[in-house]
Amino acid sequence: MRWSGEVHTKDHCNTQNTEAEGVVTGARYIAEQEFGTTFQDIPPGTTFTFEFHLHVIRPGETGSLAGDDYMQHMLAHFAVNAKGVPTVSNIDLRAECK
Fold first, then answer.
1. What are residue 64's phi and psi, to 5 degrees?
2. Is the peptide bond between 43 and the residue preceding it cis, with omega within 30 degrees of 0?
3. Which terminus of the chain, N or C, has less C-beta within 10 A?
């Protein structure tokens, strides 16, 4: 068996039903997050991608705290050519309260 010089890695993590409590309000929240990375070093270049999603939701919204659910999405992608020059660099970050 010969080594081709290529490296591929992929990671994925998904958490569900993590509980949190508001410091000021004492409100209960359920958090779900998912993230993953992909790395490929295939001569003559390298790519890296990172993706992250986070949802923090308060079940049974009532009263003055309505609309305090939080959602975040992040996507980052980078590519480098054989000369070590970045050819792609993209970061997309979105966050909102609902």
1. -75, -5
2. no
3. N
| Residue whose structure tokens are 């992040």 | 74
Q: Considering its fold, how many domains does the chain have in total?
A: 1
- Other Cβ atoms less than 10 A from the Cβ of 58: the count is 19
Rounded CA-CA distance 78/88 in Å is: 5
Residue 16 lies in a domain: yes
> In this structure, is residue 28 part of a structural domain?
yes
Q: Dihedral, CA atoms, 36, 40, 46, 51, nearest 10 degrees?
A: -10
- Report yes or no on whether pTM surpasses 0.85: no
Q: Is residue 47 part of a domain?
A: no
Domain hosting 61: range is 7-37+53-97
State CA 33 to chain mean position distance. 8
Whether the CB-CB separation of 34 and 53 falls below 8 Å is answered with yes
